[in-house]
Amino acid sequence: MDYTVDKETFINHISSHYDELLCKFKEYCRLNNYQWDWDIFQDTIVKCHELISKRGLLNKTPYGIESYFFVSFRNNVRREKQY
Known about the structure:
single chain
């Protein structure tokens, strides 16, 4: 199945709200005593985009896209802290 529309929807939303999401995610790290890491933030965008191109996106609303991205970022930050 072709998920081109899903991955374009995701990347377009992330790029048009990049600064806002960046501030929110930095604040999340600060409030939860996680070290902010640009590489994790950028890598999460890439990994989400790759996974969406293979599996699609269930909730294509702005809220669904941001929730998917945030949960992925949160999981990556938590994993990094374990190392």
